[in-house]
Amino acid sequence: MTNKMKKKAIAIVAHNEKKNTLLEWAKANREELSRHRLIGTSNTARLLTSVLEIEVEPFGHGPNGGDILLAAKILQNEVEKLIFFVDLQSPHGHEHDIQTLIRTATINNIPIALNPATATLIIHEQDAGKE
Asked: Which CATH number does 9-124 carry?
């Protein structure tokens, strides 16, 4: 299947301090998540795949360029929604990459969930982000 034919994905990312929150949310929404193509930064993808037994395709480590790789996937029209559980209370060395990712998603009309409440809303909304 070529990239142009590949089903758009829900991208899932979480800062280390938010991985437990993401995991609890994902467990509660496992059935809905299993209906979608999922991609995630390497550690998040590995965690979700192993615990939930749902395939989450890894694409890179966040602090080592993973956020930028995800922004590129948005620009290549491969992402339909972004779930990014951010830790706003800790500094991150790759803050500019995080801002680039959020800016890219915003400019390209990609729904972004930064917490469990909005994540639940956007995974259940079938037409989110479509014009």
From this structure: 3.40.50.1380
